[in-house]
Each structure stands twice: as C-alpha cells, then as structure tokens.
Amino acid sequence: MQPFSSRPAGTVAQLGEIALIAAIRRWLGRAAPPSPAGMGDDCAVLRPFRGRPLVTVDPVIYGEHFDDGNTPREAGTKLFRRNLSDIAAMGGQPVAAVVSIACDPSLRIAWLEAFYRALAAESRRHGVPVVGGDLARLRGGLAATLTLIGRCGGRRAVTREGARRGDWIYVTGEIGGSREGRHCRFAPRLREGEWLAGQRAVRAMLDVSDGLAKDLRALQPRDARPLLDERALPVSPAARRAARRSGQPVVQHVLTDGEDYELVFAVARSADLQSFETRWRRAFPRVRLTRIGHFAAPDAAVPAGHLTLADYRGFEHLRSDSANRA
Amino acid sequence: MQPFSSRPAGTVAQLGEIALIAAIRRWLGRAAPPSPAGMGDDCAVLRPFRGRPLVTVDPVIYGEHFDDGNTPREAGTKLFRRNLSDIAAMGGQPVAAVVSIACDPSLRIAWLEAFYRALAAESRRHGVPVVGGDLARLRGGLAATLTLIGRCGGRRAVTREGARRGDWIYVTGEIGGSREGRHCRFAPRLREGEWLAGQRAVRAMLDVSDGLAKDLRALQPRDARPLLDERALPVSPAARRAARRSGQPVVQHVLTDGEDYELVFAVARSADLQSFETRWRRAFPRVRLTRIGHFAAPDAAVPAGHLTLADYRGFEHLRSDSANRA
How far is A244 from chain B (nearest CA, A)? Predict the structure, then answer.
C-alpha cells in the first residue's frame, strides 16, 4: 500500500494534530495506558521493576525496511517485533515501548491507523504497553522509531561476549530468504531467549538481523572463527525460493540475507549436548534447534562439508548502492 | 552547514558501516560506556536504579527542527536538551540515552562528527551516558531520534494534571523568539524541576515547547482557564526582535513561538507565595521566576491588562502549510 496520497482528503495534514493524537489513542486502545503511565505528559512514568533495565531502539523506514509491497500492518508488526527480538537476544522481558513517527503530511490516515492497530496487537500479545511517543513532520518520507525498555528479571543478561574456542554454535528456527515475507511476520523468540538465559551452558547470544555470516563475527572469540557444517544449516523454504530466483547458491541466501530474527548462541564445549537438546525439545517442541558448527582455531583445517565465513558478508547499512540486495 | 555532500568523498557512504560505528564510539568517547552497559550488543544493560522510571522521546529532523542555518553542534545540543527538558518537567533525573540516526548516505562525516561531539558534551555535562543507538538509511533526509530514560528519585513525578481553579501560574526564564537562536542553546531546567518537585505547593508542571498559549491549555483544570497579566510576562529580548521583524505584537511571539523549554507550573492558591519565591531566589539566584497569572473561572471577568488565550494558538505539528512560521 502506498502510504501517501496526492489529494489532501484522508491525510494526516487534514486531520490535524489534536484530532490525530486522539485517533492514535483510539487505535491503540488498551495498549496505551492513561497518563502519566502512558501518553499525554512530558514523560511516561513507569512502575518500578526488578532486575537490570534493558534498552534497545530500531526504526522502520519507508523504502528501507518496508515499501509499497507491504501492508501498514506488516510495517507496524515488524517495527515492534524487531525490537522484541533484541530483548529476546539478551534473555530479557519487554516492559514498555515508545514510538516516534516522522512523516510527510500527505500520509494517509488509513495507513497510519492500520500501522497503529498492528502496534496495538503486538502490545497486547506481549503485554508491553505503548507508553509514549512523538509526531513530527518529515517532508517526503516516513520513518517510525520504536524504543523498547525491558528487564533482566533476576537472571543474567546474555551478551555477545563470552563464547570460547571449541564452543558449539546453535541457531533456532530456519534461516534465509526472509525478504520473501518472513521479515514482517516472524515471531520474536522471547520465551526461548529467557529459557536460554537460564541455561548455564549458553555463553553468548544474539539475534540474526544482518545475516548469519556478519552476525556470527560479533559472537566469535578473539582466538577462533566459526566453522559451519553446510549440510546442517536449517535452510528455510524461502531461502530455496530466493536462490531459484537469484541463481545464487542457497547457502549464500542462508548466510547473508539477514532479518531472520532467530537466536544464534554459543554452548560450552563441555556441555552435555544431548541433555541440553532434550530439555529444549521438551520446552519448545515446535521450534527447531540446530547445531550448525563450532568456533575453531583460525588455522584449524576446514573439514569436508564445512565452511568458514570468509567469503560471505551480511547486510551493510548506509551503503549508497544496491549491492545489499544483489 | 549543509549536511549533505554532492561528492562521495567525506560522506558516511564512503566510510562504511563498521568504520562509522568505530568513529561514533571515538566521537562519543567517555559518553559511551563499554558494552553491555553501552553500544555493541542487542540491548544496553543498565544498572538498576531506584524510583519510578521515566521515558521520553523527541527527534530533530532536518528542515523541521534545524536547517542549513544551524551548525551540527546546535542540532545535537538541541536534540539532547529537548529530551532533558521533558525529564525536568516531571522533576526527574536523566539516567541514559539512546540515539537512532536515519540519514541519506551522502551525509558528510564532518557533520555527523560535530553532531555526535555535541551529544557527547551534553552527556558529560549532565552525567547521562549514551548507551545505544541505531544507524539506518533515509533517502534524501536526516532525522535523529533520542529516547531518554530517567527516574523520579524517591520524590513524586510532577504531572500536567493537578492544577485547580484559583491556582497561580509561574514560569521560569524568559519567553518568546526562541527561533532567533535560543532553541538550540537553552539550558534544560533539570535542577529547577527537581527542586520544584520537592515543593508541595507545586501542583502541576510542563515545559513550554509548542508555545505558552497551547501548552497552558494542557495544564488548566476543567473548570478554569488561564488569565495572564500581560505586563508581567517575562518577554525575552529575542521576542522583541522577532516582533520588530514580523510586525506582530510582542505578546503574540511570547505566547505562540514555542521551543522556550522553560518550566511553567501551577502553585496552590493557598500557598505562601512570598516564602516560595524567596526560597526559589535562594536556590536559583540567576534564574528569573515570574508569576504570570492564575486559573480563573471561565466566566470570570477579564481584569484590565489581562488576557485569555482564546486568540492565540501554539505550534501545530504536521501542518502541511507554513502557517506555523507565519
């Protein structure tokens, strides 16, 4: 859906700011608590919570993270979930969200309504109120930025640091081809992340946003590099479709497409993998868990059927060319 | 300074994402704590803090909140301070900030460096680390969104609700003509806000962002409206200059220019004003404090020299025309 209208009727400019804020409150409904816990004052005042606070911020921008081929509902869902995925990657729980919208005055009210109703649905689904926001003008564009506050409820926050040489590499779900649709429909791995934070053997974790090849580099210890078992990779059907279309190898899509929003994590070399995997299946019988490789010494031989990430790169932000989508 | 360059040399596109993130870390310096307390993981992990958490978000957008006539330093300073001002308006203390940048790849590195160095200066000045952020592409534009986490340290949060008929209206500093330069240079009233939150007589408060005329409506009780003593208004020299240029009455500028970032608050009718004002002067000898009027019954007679706000309106966001700047 094209977000902007060439005629003034039905645009946010026509509605005006006060009516628009009232409409947003209505669209958010139960997702927006009354002031001062929610919108309407200079700040939102949250209830104190236990544990270390977490903060993350990610936008969705028209032409970058979504386009005319996406519904406003998909854009809103994606915005909320990509931030939830960051909380999941620390093993945390989401607490509250604020949403800042910058848009051309020609933005269709209908677009914005569907977008906010999607935010409201995510808010209710995950019990995370939308407590504030901002509306500003951005000529010729549309960007929505969501900041999510979370908490580590007593348990540790699982960071990207901590993997050691020899540790196993696991990933949830299936990877690659997210642009075929999954990037707007994925389920953030909140329960899984929290469970993993409770497992001692899990040493480091992140969510796959820029592609496994790029993101795994952030997880690797200084004295090791990832060695992946190519046949083990949990290839998504979308990655196969994308490969048929692009003519590139499937593995290229799996490693570099990005926006998978699956959890990738390191498990201690010394861990009882069978026990770990059995407990996972008991906790999450419907979520695939795959051991895809391990962190090996940089000069270690590459066994048959295995690959290093030297020839792959993930999504590069801020490039001026279209190489990222090539 | 024009933020964008027509030649690739010296633009963020040329630098690339990884080098750019390294540069941002360098520009922020001590303002950016190491991961996971700061940038570099999926979320920032904050230290637990006492009191109710506060959250606010405000952007600065090229062409809206700043333009070629502003330095990048001014844009960065303004971004941080307008959010600090929201924390001040609750009587809170700032804790941590995250900054999301969306920009065209032709953004000059020099622009971004000066912008981040301004954020770093504000961070150090107020002891508020920049703990995270995001970089994304926005074709043809430049928008920076800062979310500020704060806390109400044991004391109450002063909301916009609570003023009663008969209450006095006070404002800090001087008002009007902020566009002449002050909108990028004001000092957020953090210490003052915290002090006011400790005064029982202060019933409701906000910071003046869209103009006194518009913002005072958010403070007024249901059964009253503001009556202002025109001669008492603390007119800024910039408001007088703006009036000379525009040909409009000075009071128009004072009431509707906006972006003053001063605190306006209601003091209980029954309060000992002399004592209150004496204590203020002792605490803040260099900050002007002015009683500008009171909340009167809607049908109360308007005394000579007084005005209601019926004929004035403040800044309207999302208008498609240029009426806001008329």
Answer: 29
CB contact under 8 A, A55 and B98: yes
**Gap from B303 CA to chain A (nearest CA, Å):** 30
| DSSP states of B189-206 | -HHHHHHHHT-TTEEEEE
Q: Kindly determine whether residue A103 and residue B42, on different chains, have CB atoms separated by under 8 Å.
A: no
Q: B255 to chain A nearest CA, in Å?
A: 19
Question: What residues of chain A lie within 8 A of the CB of B98, using their CB?
Answer: 55-57, 147
Q: What is the pLDDT of residues A125-158, one digit of tens each?
A: 999 999 999 999 999 999 999 999 999 976 799 9
A149–B149: do the CB atoms touch at under 8 Å? yes
b/e per residue B136-175 (b: at least 16 CB within 10 A):
bbbbebbbbbbbbbbbbeeeebbbbebbbbebbbbbbbbb
Å between B305 CA and nearest CA of chain A:
30
Instruction: Select from 3.30.1330.10, 3.40.50.620, 3.30.2170.10, 3.40.50.12780 the CATH code of A12-152.
Output: 3.30.1330.10
d(CA B74, CA B188): 14
Q: How many CB atoms lie within 10 A of CB B182?
A: 23
- Please spell the DSSP secondary structure of A20-62, one letter per residue: HHHHHHHHHGGGSPPTTTSSSSSSEEPPP-SSEEEEEEEEEEB
Type and span of the H or E element at A206: strand A202-207
The two three-digit tokens of residue A10, written as one number: 């039905």
CB A75 within 8 A of CB A60: yes
**Does the interface predicted TM-score (ipTM) exceed 0.90?**
yes
pTM of the full predicted structure?
A: 0.94
A309 close to A264: Cβ distance less than 8 angstroms: no
Residue B319: its chain A contacts at CB < 8 A?
Answer: 13, 16-17, 105, 137
User: Do A55 and B149 count as a contact with CB atoms less than 8 A apart?
Assistant: yes
Structure token digits, residue B204: 């409701």
Q: Which of A28-42, A134-148, A207-221, A307-321 has the lowest mean pLDDT?
A: A307-321
User: Nearest CB to A52: which of B45, B103, B317?
Assistant: B45
In sequence order, what are the residues at sequence separation of 6 or more whose Cβ sits closer than 8 angstroms to the Cβ of residue A82? A58, A60, A188, A209, A261
Query: What are the strands, taking DSSP E only, across A76-141?
Result: 93-103, 130-137
Backbone phi, then psi, for B100, in 5-degree steps? -110, 125
Distance in angstroms (rounded) separating the CA atoms of residues B79 and A156: 33
The token pair that represents B304 in the structure block: 């000579």
Closest CA to B53 of A128, A33, A132, A46: A46
Q: Does the beta-carbon distance from B136 to A13 stay under 8 Å?
A: no
Interface A:B, Cβ pairs < 8 A = 253
Beta carbons of A139 and B63 less than 8 Å apart? yes
The whole-angstrom distance between B48's CA and the closest CA on chain A is: 5
Superfamily of chain region A168-315: PurM-like C-terminal domain (3.90.650.10)
Domains of chain B, residue spans = 12-152, 168-312
Class of domain B168-312 (CATH, top level): alpha beta
